[in-house]
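Incident review: delayed structure delivery

Summary: a single-chain prediction request sat in the queue longer than the usual turnaround. Root cause was a stuck worker, restarted by the on-call engineer. No data loss occurred. The affected request and its eventual output are reproduced below so the record is complete for anyone auditing the incident later.

Affected input:
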Amino acid sequence: MEISKKRILTSRAGRSVTDQFTVEDDYNVPDNREDIGRVVSCEGNTKIEEIRKNESYLNISGRIEFKVLYVTDSIDPSLASLEGSLPFEEMVYVEEQEQTDYIVKTNRSQVNIDLIHSRKMALKVLVELGIHSEIRSEYDIPLDTEGEECCRKYKNADIMEIHTSKRDIYRIKEEITLPGQKENIDVLLWHDVKLRRLDTKLEKDHLYFNGELQVFCIFLTVEGKTDWIEKNIPCEGRIDCPGAEEKFYHHVYETMSEISVIPVMDEDKEMRKISIEATLEMRILVYKEENVRILEDLYSLNKPCEIESEEQEIEEIIMQNHSKCRVCERLHLPELKNEILQICHCDGVLQVENTEIVEDRMNIEGLLHVSFLYVKANDHVPFDVWQGIIPFSCHIEMGKECGNIRQDITYAVEQISVEASGSDEVEIKASLAFRCFLRKAEKYNLISGVTWKKIEFGETEREPGIIGYIVKKDENLWELAKRYRTTEESILEINNLKSKDIKEGQKILIFREKVSIL
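Output delivered after worker restart:
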């Protein structure tokens, strides 16, 4: 007997791991930079350069790029900045099978600096990595049989199959122009570029994305004044995904790296433009879902058979959802009373601590790390930074209660604003974005082969032709028809039943099908 099959390629989510580690080192101020008097702000970005699997461990190496905005230790203090990097290597324990691919994403890089003296500082960087695993596999779905007359039982299932799994990059190039009231740029001191409001969708043969670049720059003017500019720049693009269709599903892990921000001349040869270049790295997973009629069971009226099967988990898509959570918090900050003249810039980083599915919704809890740069009243160089933490919780409705859920979640701060409210209060508003891709796994015993057994001469004649039967708990019509080598239709007709649903304690007659053996 031939069994026709359909080959399914799948990539299912394995175990996700959150890893935290600390990198500490002393850093000497470069000779071409002025002495440090006071650190205003510091920021880090973790660049992952290599991922190697070593038995049960993942070896992750790269560098932490940091930048520091500070007030110089000089007779005439002013703002200055410096940049540097620290190498790192981290070993993370993982327990997956062979065909596993790993996605490593930096959740946050928190830089703390202690000044040893004006030419040396002690750096301590807390790095949090999110490590997601994809387990690639393939299996065969039995569809039908050929070459033997038999009774067949089918089951329809929505089966998820991987269509595209790829890494790609998109080069972002944008420019901003200073407003007319601002003076020309002499030195660019500090920049912060974030990708906000990212949205993705599938098109024919492409993945389309759009979002905003939030650009903030502090600069010295040609007159020696300190000024700043902040602007949101729309950006969009398309990445090739051959064979993709709008009806398919997708999930994206994105990272922005290699950010370059430099002042450039405009058409009048004046330094009034700022060029922004960055690389958007994307890990793209595209899935398609197909309703397949699976051959679930079979038997013959002529002779017994032994079915060989293999247990296989089959995933179906529950939800692809882009949800938002609003955070609004008014903070009383007595330490800043009468200090804040103007808030220049704010930023936020998410730290998800717990994800739990309860009945028909997903609960996400975590912390929003908030910082804002402000102008203060009582300093020759009137800039400082406040940092704090706000807890948040988000509830995402799933529409139905499901068990054995597998989840892929990416998250980001979509928007954040901080406004002074009174002499010692600020109001923080943020929009948090969660991109969820949920699958349900169900175990199937998939038929892999059938072995037919010989019937001894006269064996069928010794079996009773008519059986009076009382239905037991959890029995169904198919099982009875298979056990007594008859058909469901025969049992329905003899007992004048309108439905295949039978109940415990129900009395039925079963007529065994009579066949001749040659």
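Verification: The chain has four domains: 10-140, 148-302, 319-444, 461-511.
Action items: add queue-age alerting; document worker restart procedure.
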